[in-house]
Amino acid sequence: MIKVLIVDDHELIRSGISRLLADDDKISVIGEATSGEEAVSKARELRPEVILMDANMPGIGGLEATRRLIRFDPDVKIIAVTVHGDEPYPTRFMQAGAAGYITKGTGIEEMTIAIKQVASGKRYLAPEIAQQMALKAVNPDEGSPFDDLSDREMQVMLMITRGQKVQEISEQLFLSPKTVNSYRYRLFEKLKIENDVELTHMAIRHGVIESDKL
To answer: What angle (nearest 5°) sits at the alpha carbon of residue 106, between those of residues 7 and 136?
Structure first.
């Protein structure tokens, strides 16, 4: 039996996935989490084999949660799940140690295949994601403007676009407000924008964040 933890800030999605996976006698959903922080806590408590990780959530988000979980348990298999399959998310998640990447449009049959495949030690990429990553490797100049951000800049960017204030970001990332502001202005410089509103619009346009989560 493969022990699975579902992480998503939407209760409807968590309960829906949980009910569908219950039909497979080789998979057992042992818990749910609503944020990256809770995912880290629950994973340490429940020790799942596979984690279905929403990419875009409040707080530290799915990407940072993936990094922390892999550091804690290198053997845990994490499958990123998101509405958008656009770069830079797939590459960033795989670099962070995720074993798989699927979209929320994935059918339950493909999701169970992904869970079983990563549990066996293999990787799983949804076909459209694999194609996109292959095309990016062939045409690196056609990537997203967010590709050039460092991991920390990317993390701060995601938190800003969720409406989190500098003080809140500094507390969650254990950084000083001055350091957070430095990352913020560096983002503006690299992306050639002037404020948080422009940053959010650019992130939506390039599929880095989901507009329904704002």
So the answer is: 95
Domain locations along the chain: 2-138, 145-213
* Contact predicate 74/42, CB 8 Å: no
CATH of domain 145-213: 1.10.10.10
Q: Which residue intervals of 120-150 are DSSP H helices?
A: 127-138
119, 206, 208 from 211: Cα distances, Å: 32, 11, 10
Q: What are the contacts of 183-186 at 24+ separation with CB within 8 A?
A: 183/152, 183/153, 183/156, 184/156, 184/160, 186/153
Residue labelled with tokens 């509103």: 197
Q: What is the pLDDT of residue 59?
A: 83
User: What's the pTM?
Assistant: 0.76
Q: Which CATH number fits domain 2-138: 1.10.1740.10, 3.40.50.2300, 3.60.15.10, 3.30.420.40?
A: 3.40.50.2300
DSSP string, 95-112: HHT-SEEEETT--HHHHH
Could you tell me the two tokens for 22?
């219950």
Residue 128 CA to residue 29 CA, distance in Å, equals: 27
By percentage, how much of the chain surpasses pLDDT 70? 90
pLDDT category at 210 given cuts 50, 70, 90 is low
